[in-house]
Amino acid sequence: MTDSIIVAALDSPEAAPLVAALGGEYATRYADYDGFPKQEGEPEEIDLFPPLVFEAPTGTLLLVRRDGETIAGGGFMYLDDETAEIKRVWTSPDHRRQGLSRTVMTALEDAAAARGYRRIYLSTGPRQPEAVGLYLSLGYTALFDLDADPEAIAHLAFEKELGEAGGRAAAKAAAQRAAVAEAHRWHQPPPVRLADLTGR
């Protein structure tokens, strides 16, 4: 049993189990919940954000694959220049309680930090207490009153400074720049660049 983490498109065959399962789970958990007001014609939440927003350079979708099967995943998209928003975190019901959500979250945080994001924002629904527990255990700060009735709040939002992960990415970037500078002592950088020709 070997797990691998791959980058995939949200509309790829590999991501189809994640999309289908999330749509079904949201529909089941929130079938009789009216705390999410919707405008007429507004798409379902699962359809609201197109695959494009989960692609590089500002987003990504990561899937955990085991023996050719997608068993967990999640993605992030651009929220602002310093903040990625994590969405679509999911683990197959047959593979829960194996630490896969933690694996996905760690991989997403590292990928976001590598893209230059400094913080993560995410939200979950009031009928997903396991998600609330996961995010709190990973160091996220609740942006709502944890003692209040979650059904009255509806969107349970969290945020986390990437700090250490961002620091690792910054340290690696500095080491990369230093290595390139050292190499340029022996192999000169390109003498002419496009900006030199265009005056930009």
How would you characterize the overall build of this protein?
The chain is α+β, with helices and mostly antiparallel strands. A 7-stranded mixed β-sheet has the order 1-2-3-4-5-7-6, sandwiched between helices. The chain contains 7 helices and 7 strands. It has helices at residues 16-29, 45-48, 100-114, 129-137, 150-153, 164-183, 194-198, and strands at residues 3-7, 60-66, 69-80, 83-91, 119-124, 141-142, 156-161.
Topology:
Layout: E1 3-7, H1 16-29, H2 45-48, E2 60-66, E3 69-80, E4 83-91, H3 100-114, E5 119-124, H4 129-137, E6 141-142, H5 150-153, E7 156-161, H6 164-183, H7 194-198
Parallel strand pairs: 4-5
Antiparallel strand pairs: 1-2, 2-3, 3-4, 5-7, 6-7
Précis, in short:
The chain is an alpha+beta fold and 200 residues long.
Tally of DSSP helical segments: 7
- Please identify, by name, the CATH architecture: 3-Layer(aba) Sandwich
Q: How does the helix and strand content classify structurally? A: alpha+beta
The whole-angstrom Rg is 20 Å
- Mean pLDDT across every amino acid position: 88
- Straight-line N-to-C gap: 53 Å
Helicity range of the residues?
Answer: 25-40%
CATH superfamily: Gcn5-related N-acetyltransferase (GNAT)
Count of structural domains: 1
Major beta sheet, strand line-up: 1-2-3-4-5-7-6
- Stated plainly, the CATH topology is called Aminopeptidase
Strand content: 15-25%
Which H/E pattern describes the elements? EHHEEEHEHEHEHH
Point out poorly predicted stretches. none
Overall, the morphology is elongated
